[in-house]
Amino acid sequence: MTKEEFANVLKTAVGGTAYGDEIIADLTAHFDETGKYAQTAKDRLDERIATLKGWEKKHAEEGDADKAAAEAAKIAIAEKALAALK
Q1: pTM score, two decimals?
Q2: Which of 11, 24, 64, 78 could form a disulfide linkage to 59, CB 3.0–4.6 angstroms apart?
Q3: Whether the Cβ atoms of residue 14 and residue 84 lie closer than 8 Å to each other
Q4: Residues 29, 62: contact at Cβ < 8 Å?
Q5: How far from 36 is each of 20, 31, 33, CA to CA, in Å?
Q6: What is the rounded distance in angstroms from the CA atom of residue 62 to the CA atom of residue 23?
């Protein structure tokens, strides 16, 4: 898969939202031409999702439902990107 094809897969899955576009920019910037692009992208998304889940939990524990919901929305976008790469 070329970098352009990779970006198009992600754009189809999560493009059009600010956070989705941020994910696309990050993953294409770290695109590995040697063929490890999928594993690199999956690893980066796994780390991103884990971080977001931590923030979601923290906000929920502090009683800030709006911030927790915002993190949950980001998690959903990141999980869609991850699913598109499998």
Answers
A1: 0.92
A2: 64
A3: yes
A4: no
A5: 21, 8, 7
A6: 27
Q: Please compute the mean of the pLDDT values over residues 22-41 and round it to a whole number.
A: 89
pLDDT at residue 35 greater than cutoff 80: no
Q: Which two tokens stand for residue 24?
A: 């696309």
As a residue count, the chain comes to 86
Rounded to whole angstroms, the Cα distance separating 31 from 6 reads 8
CB atoms within 10 A of CB 45: 21
CA distances from 32 to 37, 41, 72 (A): 5, 9, 29
Token code pair at residue 5: 């094809």
